[in-house]
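Q&A log
Question type: sequence-to-structure
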Amino acid sequence: FCQSKWERLGFTALSFFTQAQLTNVLKNNVTRARPFSVGFNGGEAGPPSVDSMPSAHSANSFFGASLSSKHLDDTTWPLIMKRSLQTALWGGAVAVGLARIEAGMHYPTDVLAGAAIGNFVASFFYNLYAARNPKTAENLEVGVTENQLVLKYSF
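Response status: OK
Response body:
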């Protein structure tokens, strides 16, 4: 895995930043109305809002659960402790998604899209950078321009 705590911190920050930017780009381009804006479930319509898809809360929570679960697998802790913590992490992520639906902030598909994004980005970065091949990181280039994030991986 990463050679130092600083390297691991940088890897985690970069992967979270990528996930957050991807979620925001999709929110700004999909422009789906939130359920409370259209009177979902027979309630009164609330103030207009068109940033429902995907759920950033779900993306963040599933990103955290996925990446943390992968890191837990790398520890030497007893298996029962690892699985207990992983169950709590995934249970918390699911609870966040359900709470967003219950609050009328998202449709179920918004939450599923956010969960997929969070899990995909965490898995992508973990497999790309943190997999036990130190040469893998040399093939990753990340850059930020005025209006875009550039991620390039060479084989």
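Response note: The chain has a mean pLDDT of 82.
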